[in-house]
Fold this protein.
Amino acid sequence: MTVKEIMAELKSFGNEGIKKILLKHGVKEPFFGVKVEQLKTIEKKIKKDYALSKELYLTKNADAMYLAGLIADDEKMTREDLEEWVKLAVSNNISEYTVPWVTAGGRYGFELATTWIDSHDEHIAAAGWATLSNLLALKPDPELKIPTLKKLLTRVEKNIHAAKNRERHTMNGFIIAAGTYVKELNKDAVATANQVGLVTVDMNGTACKVPDAAAYIKKAMDKGSLGKKKKTVKC
């Protein structure tokens, strides 16, 4: 499929009702309002395509950008590709899902994530914390830099309540990921969650709620799923 063909198909799937919901959730124009399940029907036809994913992303259409993340060949993504993607990721679903998925699945995940979290741009910093969470969910523990991650939990504890809105959201997600996916970080994450308490994030009037990190981690522990990794973070 070509970019022109895909954009025409995305337009045909556009739904004003879905678009209104996505606007409330921080997705920014231009986009058509395509359901994820419909994006996945296109993904199944394409599978992985490095070049096509980059072309789609550069349309700056949020539906196409999300699809680009689904079909991206993460291992082929260069550092320059990912830096370009994160700068363009102004929609919450792209900065907190698409870019972190692809970055965590590639060769530069930890390096870029720990750079992005220092950014003054809210969407880039949020992408950095979300990338770290995805790395914890995907990577075997021996491949993780545990001492550095412990220091990052301390950083979150000190700074989360003063951080920008979407940074707070993804920092909270990092605490949860550390406590549920990495056994060696569990105690530190629980301590951080208890110290931080409930995190307030402006959800723009939607029904979405910020998870209580301590309760979320405890639920994972009670289910016996502590340390269980994901095969993929893309959804």
About this structure: The two ends are 21 Å apart (CA to CA). Residues 1-72 form one domain. The chain has two domains: 1-72, 96-235. Residues 174 and 207 are 22 Å apart (CA to CA).
